[in-house]
Amino acid sequence: MDFVSLPVLIVIVILLLLLARSSVQVIPEYERGVIFRLGRIQAAKGPGLFFLIPVIDQIRRVDMRVVTLDVPTQEAITKDNVTVKVNAVCYFRVMDPVAAVVNVSNYLLATQQIAQTTLRSVLGQSELDDLLANRDKINQRLQQIIDDQTEPWGIKVSVVEVKDLELPQSMQRAMARQAEAEREKRAKIIHAQGELIAAEELSEAARVMARADGAMQLRYLQT
After folding, report:
1. What is the per-residue pLDDT for 182?
2. pTM of the predicted protein model
3. Is residue 148 part of a domain?
4. Around 65, how many Cα atoms within 13 Å sit in the side-chain half-sphere?
């Protein structure tokens, strides 16, 4: 009897230790633990040490640090019918861990999908010149739209930045030709301005010499 009860006792002790270990939770400073009791939300706890009721309580850990999310390259047609490829980076963090767990199944994936669709939409509503010249304005618009759409999930989007803008080869060649033409135009203008200045200086020198000759002749007559 004692031989049978000893293994049973060991098993019971091990189970109790496992339950005790699972009931003790330590949440670091950068996380929060969302507690469910019998399926119902209780609260977000942490950081620090707290205890769960074994079997009855469940915990979902949520990272509260800033997340750097790369938005994959998206292809879109701008408002003036130019095909472009653009990628971006999005910085956000969880402000409400309960909302991030309860209101969306996977807030990381959901935020990435929202960022992709928003990037394509904003590109389609913008002209190429705006994308090239007003990058800060485009970034601000992306941030506002994505932040508004992810707010119900307890997400705060702080920064969205367009990284790379790829144009079709034909457009790149056309822009290169235009840039070269602008450089040649500026060079001709600078050369013409230089010629004008040189002509004015020569004219002034001629006037000075003419006055000098007149003065010398007058002096000669006086003597």
Report:
1. 60
2. 0.71
3. yes
4. 8
